[in-house]
Amino acid sequence: MRLSYGPKEKKMFHPNVKRYIEAIKLYNESIAFSEKGSTERALAYANRSNICLKMQRFEECLENIRLARESNYSGEKLNQREKDAKNALAKARNKNASSSKVSPDVVEEPELSYPSKENAPQIANCLELRKNEEYGRHVVTTRKLKVGDVVMIERPFVTVLKDSFRYVRCDFCHEERPFTLIPCEGCTMAMYCSEECLSKAYNNYHRYECGLLRDLWEVFETVPLIAIRMIAIAIATFDNNPEALKDHLDALDESNVNGFTMDWNKATQQDIFNTVHVLTTNQERRHSMFVAMFIFNATILHTLVLERTELGPVCEANPATNKFLQDLILRYMQIVNCNRKL
């Protein structure tokens, strides 16, 4: 599938308009839809370099020139643009070296308002995990808290970029890098700020979702997508062996998994995965109509996974793994529904 740049991009780039960011998004869309090495992609990279030059983003300009040439751009305009960007970059560096201006402040990481637990440095020692019939499993504090107190700092097990940021932020690290995004060659839905992030995304989860992303975004809300990515990360955690994941969960005593008592200083990725796997589904509290809806959607997702990913042949050869995958999709959709944070 190809999407060449055209009137919309040119209109945004008109000297009397200068809506450069809108133009960048449209060029990124062209890049995502174009074939590797195609004229369309080469032109999009070349025009993106021109915007970077006009916005005085000289390093990004040079990176786009490199990408355009890798895509077989044959025009002569890049040579002069490269020369202009290099000269401007050298002048800017010399100016900065002789300037006494202070660089922009670095965003500070949040800190806990109270001492942390010895076994869990991301949790304040005033928090406890409890369970009863009224609230189920829940967290309480053993001291009075003030508005704005930070009592937990935790990296999420899975994150999903909002679809509206697809052509602005990296799908892996989520950094805002619209001027240098590169596409996944297997789908038109994910872009990355570097080859490193592209590779990490593929190895961590994208290999199992690449063929599904467009339908997941167009047909479903975010819950099924997050659930599929959770399963992808889980399989990758067990060396991309779904049967090893199944064996692990079959042997897991879920009643002994407690993220508040586990020693996070020594926790492995499998230990961390366990704490996510045991999150509540609330299936027993749901109306049968909603349970039926989850089952229906899980069946559709399961079919797509079998048809469009490398898990299909694995499940075809092993019926037990096939059923395990379908059960996991249903479980994780309900976990996401209860525990996601928008």
Automatic annotation (TrEMBL):
Positions with biased composition (Low complexity): 87-101
InterPro entries assigned: TPR-like_helical_dom_sf, Znf_MYND
SUPFAM superfamilies cross-referenced by the UniProt entry: HIT/MYND zinc finger-like, TPR-like
MF terms in GO: zinc ion binding
Domain (MYND-type): residue spans on this chain: 170-210
Region entry Disordered, spans: 78-114
Assigned keywords, A-Z: Metal-binding, Zinc, Zinc-finger
PANTHER family from the UniProt entry: BCDNA.LD29892 (PTHR47111), SET AND MYND DOMAIN-CONTAINING PROTEIN 4 (PTHR47111:SF1)
Protein name, UniProt field: MYND-type domain-containing protein
